[in-house]
Amino acid sequence: MPTLALQDHPQLNFLPRSSWPPIWVHSQATPYKRLMGEVGTLTGIILTEYMPTKLYVKMEFEEERYLGLLTVQDAAFARQLHDFLQNYIGLTIKEIGDLDLSHNVLTTID
């Protein structure tokens, strides 16, 4: 079976681009500060009932906290992804993007 990295999952392909990796916004910086790419360490995931196809991803980079937004195509996948990512808090964002989902339930929702 071919591998499927999280970063390549079809549910994350949301026009006009994939939502992985998120654009990271510093949670309390003045002036406005943002990062791009697979940087930092995952510190948390937030899913709300008000936006069921969006996950807030929290990460830390160089001792500063950032927040990113993952947009997916359906609410069921968002719930599964939220639960899945809870198990990987503490890994780097790069390690999470490279996770092989070939043998995981997340590959069954397209």
Q: Give the ordered list of helices and strands.
A: EEEEEEEHH
Distance between the first and last residues' Cα: 17 Å
Strand order of the largest sheet: 4-3-7-6-5
Q: Summarize the biggest pleated sheet.
A: 5 strands, antiparallel
Structural class computed from helices and strand pairing: alpha+beta
Query: How large is the radius of gyration?
Result: 13 Å
Number of domains: 1
User: How many β-strands, per DSSP?
Assistant: 7
Beta fraction: 25-35%
| Shape, per Cα inertia axes | globular
Question: Please, how many helices?
Answer: 2
Low-confidence runs of at least 5 consecutive residues: none
- Average pLDDT metric: 89
- The percentage helix is 10-25%
Class, according to the CATH hierarchy? Mainly Beta
Output the CATH topology. PH-domain like
- What would CATH call the architecture? Roll
Please give a structural write-up:
The radius of gyration is 13 Å and the shape is globular. Helices cover 15% and strands 29% of the residues. It is α+β, with helices and mostly antiparallel strands and 110 residues long. It is built from 2 helices and 7 strands; from the N terminus they run βββββββαα. A 5-stranded antiparallel beta sheet has the order 4-3-7-6-5. It has a single domain, classed as PH-domain like. The protein has helices at residues 75-86, 93-97, and strands at residues 13-14, 17-18, 24-26, 34-35, 41-47, 54-61, 64-71. A hairpin with a 7-residue loop joins strand 3 (24-26) and strand 4 (34-35).
